[in-house]
Amino acid sequence: MNQDNKQILAIELINVSRRFVSPTGKSLTALRDFNMTVGRGEFVAVVGPTGCGKSTTLNLVTGLAKPSAGEVRLMGGPINGIDPRVGFVFQTDALFPWKNVLDNVMSGPLFRGKSRAEAEKGAKDWLARVGLSKFIHHYPHQLSGGMRKRVSLAQTFINEPEILLMDEPFSALDVQTRTVMHEELLKLWADRKASVIFVTHDLEEAVALADKVYVLTAGPATVKSVYTIDLPRPRVVSEIRYDQTFIDYCKTIWDDLRQEVETSYRRASEAA
Ligand SMILES: Nc1ncnc2c1ncn2[C@@H]1O[C@H](COP(=O)(O)OP(=O)(O)OP(=O)(O)O)[C@@H](O)[C@H]1O
Does the beta carbon of 60 lie inside 6 Å of ligand 1? Predict the structure, then answer.
């Protein structure tokens, strides 16, 4: 990558608004004057109260949705539909239940025109990296939640995404498995340094993983504050939570986020 390319931002949301029309015909503004930038290789986490507009932000970056106003840019250019440079990991697995683990991971490269031999070699390599070599002939229903999530990571990383969008990918997992998955994700990410937007409700997860944490306001979401997380890498997620700097970041950001969470709850109870 030459110097000029490095300076081009991976993702830009510039003065973006996104409005929806509800089934009753009422207009709802989910995002308002929203600005966000993600540099090349940067890991950005997004936190905000429930229903504020976090997933809507990701949908705009996928190209599945268009902004009502403003502009979304990827790698310095406009978005034209679904971009092959973008990978996704969501809360629910996108695994094909009728395919075994190997075939699930091979499906992306095959779709992108790789030969069966190449796809199989790549899939086996990635499954080894996520510790699932012994399970390649298993079907998704024969795996634990953590193992399925590992398959999802292999399925995503095999396509070598330059941009990785993650929407609460680990929220359905138990606490211990989540910590293991955090470590795995950071290891996979460190090798290739995709540019990441990671949406989560879990502030500690955001601080442990990210270079920057965006705090969103209660809906309509706009950016309330951006924190740079100056914790050294590589990070050991199971230990970082005892680090005083980590605790200080969590406290400071929670003070900021709590006001928005309270606003959101107050509005919900007024509406009820
Ligand atoms: N397709 C749609 N049509 C109408 N309203 C929508 C649509 N998608 C989202 N919304 C509304 O936009 C707002 C933001 O939704 P969004 O899913 O982005 O929030 P979120 O922060 O990701 O929520 P959560 O924290 O619960 O996951 C919500 O009020 C939601 O009801």
Answer: no
Nearest CA to ligand 1 atom 1: 20
Parent domain of 270: 21-75+208-222+238-272
**Any atom of ligand 1 within 6 Å of the Cβ of 259:** no
Q: Which of 95, 206, 235 is nearest to 154 (CA)?
A: 95
Q: Is residue 268 within 6 Å of ligand 1 at its C-beta? A: no
Tokens of 265: 């709850």
Asked if this assembly's ipTM is beyond 0.90, the reply is: yes
Q: Is residue 193 part of a domain?
A: no
Q: Which two tokens stand for residue 6?
A: 């490095």
| 33 inside domain | yes
In a domain, 42, yes or no: yes
With a threshold of 0.95, does the pTM exceed it?
no
Nearest to 32 by CA among 11, 53, 46: 53
